[in-house]
Amino acid sequence: xxxxxxxxxxxxxxxxxxxxxxxxxxxxxxxxxxxxxxxxxxxxxxxxxxxxxxxxxxxxxxxxxxxxxxxxxxxxxxxxxxxxxxxxxxxxxxxxxxxxxxxxxxxxxxxxxxxxxxxxxxxxxxxxxxxxxxxxxxx
Length: 139
Description:
mainly alpha, two-stranded parallel ribbon
């Protein structure tokens, strides 16, 4: 998935803060990545590059990307709420989906977008700008 690949240079304290927040699987969860970004003084959108610079992966996206969450059927009311925020290509930002999740839940929003025609763009941690699998479906 496309990202900016910034050259992030972390000092030892910053590296240690990332490493002490890893999950049991040796990855940094989505929620902890936001916390760590604040702690180490970088923008959340630079977290993917910071993690990659020390060989760490981000996992457990709250919306269900790049992890093993099992999704159920979409909720029509949640899909309809999401669709009010589409661009003409049915693109919607991760940040907007987080906002909508506050009104329902991450699980319901994830259920409603995972196997739909919605294109989630601009991960707040910099992990992706577009969902690759939707590009493959559209082509």
